[in-house]
Write a structure and sequence with these properties.
- The protein is an all-alpha fold.
- It has a single domain (5-162), classed as Ferritin (Up-down Bundle).
- The protein has six helices and no strands.
- Helix 1 (10-35) packs antiparallel against helix 2, helix 1 packs parallel to helix 3 (78-89) and helix 3 (78-89) runs antiparallel to helix 5.
- The protein starts with 9 loop residues before the first helix and ends in a 5-residue tail after the last helix.
- 33% of the residues are buried.
């Protein structure tokens, strides 16, 4: 049975999931930075870890100002459950990141590919959560989405570069 909007606070829970994703992403990128062999890759992971901290703080600020906001009726029920599923499937929403780090020694390219997966997951999650927030917060999420897309582009470039596909 799908909970009624009055039984849950989707906006609050979505922001809490976003905070968790950003925190886990920061921890993951920090760990990858210490394991990377190439200085350029280390620098990218460190920079992205810092950006994830900024995003985490942005979502914390949004959460403080959320107040009694209720999600529009069209976003309740199944759509809310879908967004929760997207968040739970995200590579950084659970213990998946720790398992990946502990599973094996990764090459820099493999680490970058994991980053590509995270950024894709983040773009999907934030695109879906956007409509569940008040208009001013949607503008903030749009800015974060633009950054996540830049991160994805940077990772794709690095992956190609280290595979020898960029001259």
């Amino acid at each position: 049975m799908i909970p009624k909007v009055t039984e849950i606070s989707p906006g609050k829970e979505i922001l809490e999931l976003a905070i968790e994703i950003e925190r886990n992403g920061r921890d993951f990128y920090t760990a990858l930075a210490s394991k990377a062999s190439e200085k350029e890759v280390q620098a990218v992971f460190r920079r992205l870890a810092a950006r994830e901290l900024e995003h985490e703080n942005t979502f914390r600020d949004m959460l403080k100002h959320l107040g009694g906001y209720q999600v529009p009726p069209g976003y309740a029920g199944e759509h809310y459950q879908y967004i929760r599923s997207v968040a739970q499937a995200n590579i950084f929403a659970s213990e998946k990141a720790k398992k990946i780090l502990a599973s094996k020694i990764m090459t820099d390219v493999e680490a970058i590919e994991v980053g590509i997966g995270f950024e894709k997951d983040a773009i999907l999650f934030y695109s879906e959560m956007r409509g569940m927030l008040p208009k001013p917060d949607q503008d903030i999420v749009d800015a974060i989405l633009a950054e996540e897309k830049k991160h994805l582009t940077e990772f794709c470039y690095l992956a190609d570069k280290f595979r020898g596909q960029v001259r």
